[in-house]
Amino acid sequence: MTTTQAHQTLRSLQHQANEASIFASVTLDGERLECEAKDAAAKAEYRIEAAEDGWRLSLGTADRWLSESIESQLVESRDSMEDLLREELVDLDCMEAPPKIRHFRDESRRYVFECTVPFGTDPAEDLRRAICFLLAFESMFRQLGDMSGAESEE
Predict the structure, then answer these.
(1) What are the φ and ψ backbone dihedral angles of 82, each rounded to 5 degrees?
(2) Whole-model pTM?
(3) Handedness of CA 104, 109, 112, 114 (dihedral sign)
(4) Distance (Å, rounded) from C-alpha 113 to C-alpha 105?
(5) With left for phi above 0 and alpha for psi between -120 and 50, is residue 93 left, alpha or beta?
(6) How remote is the C-alpha of 83 from its chain's centroid?
(7) At how many degrees (to 10) do helices 3-20 and 123-142 cross?
(8) What are the beta bridge partners of residue 122?
(9) Which of 55, 48, 60 lies closest to 116 in space, CA to CA?
(10) 48-78, pLDDT tens digit by residue?
(11) What is the pLDDT of residues 70-109, one digit of tens each?
(12) Which domains can be identified in the chain, with CATH numbers?
């Protein structure tokens, strides 16, 4: 995928992510789309950007407790992130196999859940897949840990 195609796809993704009204904010920052999680207990961002091998999709937060709340729920449920993502993809009528999701702490000390969605050969199909995976990723994580209902208890 060329840089121009990637940027055009990201602009289209920005428009569609805004229309979905599921993010607190959606910003195109250079060659990366950043979508702030809505209602999370701490600041968290979904990011999607073109890499050599496909769309790099991630959820990241600097908040250790938010990351641990997601991890804890995954351990308790015994579900894999790939199985949960597969369920969300099916709900969006996207019958693709979910990629392996990695969890790590990056060089800027953010806790990151990340996967790579391989590029296809058709730019229109790549756009469809990118938005499908972004929406599925958001839906999956919204249901985990402290990613929704950030209102404080009184």
Answers:
(1) -65, -40
(2) 0.89
(3) negative
(4) 9
(5) left
(6) 15
(7) 40
(8) none
(9) 55
(10) 999 988 999 999 999 999 999 999 999 998 8
(11) 999 999 988 899 999 999 999 999 988 999 999 999 999 9
(12) 3-142 (3.30.1460)
